[in-house]
Amino acid sequence: MKATICVVSVFALSLAVAQTSRAQSASESQVERGKYLVGITGCHDCHSPKLPGGMKPVPDLLLSGRPQTTKVPSAAPGEVHASEDLTAWAGGWGQSVASNLTPDPATGLGMRYTEAKFVQAMRTGKKPEGVAIMPPMPVDVYVNMKDDDLKAIYAYLKTIPAIRNAVRAGLPPPAPAKK
Length: 179
Prior knowledge:
Elements: H1 2-40, H2 43-47, E1 81-82, E2 88-91, E3 94-97, H3 109-112, H4 115-124, H5 139-143, H6 147-157
Antiparallel strand pairs: 1-2, 2-3
Helix pairs in contact: 1-6, 4-6
């Protein structure tokens, strides 16, 4: 009788460990998928400041958006202008800067996004406060992504180092999106 209880207990414990292991593996797999998607969809091209003279991101500033020291370029009719680090632009739509995608609670995704709000923003092209996501952000690409892919991107972004960086510091607030 004691041996049977012991065997049943060990079996139950091994099932619980296996389920926990599978859940951790699935979570890690989702984060890895998100990292992959962030890499292939070009998020670093705009959201990571670059080392001078190239497209290589500054390692300590990955996905932190426009540094406060980056000036927003002036606009010229019929042209699009970008800052040298590709985190700020001016064009026919006005001016735009790359958002801080790190999980910083004051200046990044942690400030106003939940997973559901992130997916909704990518689906609608509007940030949670109703401001349009501006060019050069390829909203049309993200609108067509599967929810699982957008959730994987969000899961990955929640794991990167939080960087305090108010990307709109010194700039006028953006206008709300037109309905």
